[in-house]
């Protein structure tokens, strides 16, 4: 299904009517088990996805399905507590719909977070990784179909999707806080099954350091409409086949709990300096 410019505008207007003149500048998409930062927003205005025309529900565990608008570390933020995934049955256009709406509302920056499997065997579960780039070439683009020039060009550059300036900023903040921060490539797999050990060997051979089921679609769309992007991954588990044990959703959510503090400290420090 193709969304029209009018539909994006209609969603933006519906949200705007709830914001009383508040203009968000930094959009944040918080992944599995990492949504609590949204609860720390000051003078929050909550908007449930189900109250926004054309929005889809978020059905994944650990995803709450609402937007939180307000201030965090002096920034006007719009926090998505819960994202949509392709594996939930949504098209990539539906998965990325909110990013364009947040752009229309005034967001110039996107901070994306996710939990992902750790493919790089020099690293450990529980580590944080700054996303330097991604690989998403085995599934269609969220930009497939008619281009909407109000958002961007037909053939957008993708060589700097993860904004170098923001990567440097995150690096410096992590060093100040003594939070170890890995840097690497996020490999998108659409799930919902976790990968096979053979797939993980393939991902590694192709240059992936982390593997997950989100983020890349939203970042492609954010880049297309001119947003700067900062992506941070929680390596919640060693990817399939590295350890002699099956992967479970509980493990992923538990890792989110454990990493919550350092994660929130890093994001807050980045926001302060943006
Ligand atoms: N694979 C894919 N997605 C994930 C994983 C994983 O190992 N862990 C958390 N999200």
Give your account of this protein's structure.
With 274 residues, the chain is an alpha/beta fold. It has one domain (5-273): Nucleoside phosphorylase domain (Rossmann fold). The chain is built from six helices and nine strands. The chain has helices at 5-19, 92-105, 164-176, 197-206, 216-224, 249-273, and strands at residues 26-30, 42-48, 66-72, 75-81, 109-118, 128-135, 181-188, 210-212, 228-238. α3 (164-176) links the parallel β6 and β7 (181-188). α1 crosses α2. It is globular, with a radius of gyration of 17 Å. Bound molecules: hypoxanthine. Hypoxanthine binds next to β5, β8 and β9.
Note the main attributes of this structure:
6 helices, about 270 residues, Rossmann fold, single chain, binds hypoxanthine, alpha/beta
Task: Produce a short descriptive summary.
This protein is an alpha/beta fold and 274 residues long. The chain contains six helices and nine strands; from the N terminus they run H-E-E-E-E-H-E-E-H-E-H-E-H-E-H.
Terminus-to-terminus distance = 36 Å
CATH superfamily: Nucleoside phosphorylase domain
Described by its quaternary structure, the protein is single chain
**What's the number of helices?**
6
Total domains, how many?
1
- Approximate shape: globular
Beta content: 15-25%
Q: In which range does the helix fraction lie?
A: 25-40%
**CATH class descriptor name:** Alpha Beta
């Amino acid at each position: 299904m193709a969304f029209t410019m009018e539909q994006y505008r209609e969603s933006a207007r519906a949200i705007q009517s709830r914001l009383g003149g508040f203009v968000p500048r930094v959009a944040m998409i918080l992944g599995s088990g990492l949504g609590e930062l949204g609860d720390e927003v000051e003078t929050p205005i909550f908007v449930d996805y189900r109250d926004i025309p054309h929005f889809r529900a978020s059905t994944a565990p650990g995803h709450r399905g609402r937007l939180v608008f307000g201030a965090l570390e002096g920034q006007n933020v719009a926090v998505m507590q819960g994202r949509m995934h392709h594996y939930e049955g949504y098209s990539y256009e539906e998965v990325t719909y909110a990013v364009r709406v947040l752009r229309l509302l005034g967001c110039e920056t996107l901070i994306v977070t996710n939990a992902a499997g750790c493919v790089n065997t020099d690293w450990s579960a529980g580590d944080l990784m700054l996303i330097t780039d991604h690989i998403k070439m085995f599934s269609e683009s969220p930009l497939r179909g008619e281009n909407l020039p109000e958002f961007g060009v037909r053939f957008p550059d993708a060589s700097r999707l993860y904004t170098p300036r923001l990567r440097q900023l995150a690096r410096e903040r992590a060093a100040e806080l003594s939070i170890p921060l890995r840097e690497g490539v996020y490999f998108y797999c659409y799930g919902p099954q976790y990968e096979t050990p053979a797939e993980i060997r393939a991902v590694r051979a192709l240059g992936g350091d982390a593997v997950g089921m989100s983020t890349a679609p939203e970042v492609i769309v954010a880049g297309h409409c001119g947003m700067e992007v900062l992506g941070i991954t929680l390596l919640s588990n060693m990817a399939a086949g590295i350890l002699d044990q099956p992967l479970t959703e509980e493990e992923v959510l538990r890792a989110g709990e454990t990493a919550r503090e350092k994660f929130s400290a890093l994001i807050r420090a980045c926001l302060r300096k943006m």
